Amino acid sequence: MHDEPIDPFNGDPADPTAGLDDPGDDATPDPLTDVERQDVLEDLADLEIYQALLAPIGVRGLVIECEDCREPHYFDWDLLRGNLRHLLNSGRPRVHEPAYDPDPDHYVTWDYARGYADGVHDTLTEGTEDDPGTATSAD
């Protein structure tokens, strides 16, 4: 099983994106800084939690507002995970295109997913913390 989608043009000399992956020998990308690397690792960990909580209720992935084209991009869980791993390994993001005719009702933002996860966490931990302000004494 592959962690990311298989490239249908892999090894094809007529690959229309061949020049995109090889910017040239003189354009070696800078590796991620330690802070950037940690951010990507945290995003991957968060993504696992979000998928575990949201996929069972019909959420297919996340929507991200693209800074370059100002369009929403819809990523299913596996594609987003593959993109983050690619960034972690190569130090640069993948070239991307908007999904074909996605149903926006099946995608949520990072902020929504984070809030949902926080709400589930708060609900599960409610009443398990000792709160001295709620204790009553019998006098």
Automatic annotation (TrEMBL):
It comes from the Bacteria. Residues 1-33 are annotated as: Disordered. Pfam families: DUF5319. This is DUF5319 domain-containing protein. It comes from Micromonospora lupini str. Lupac 08.
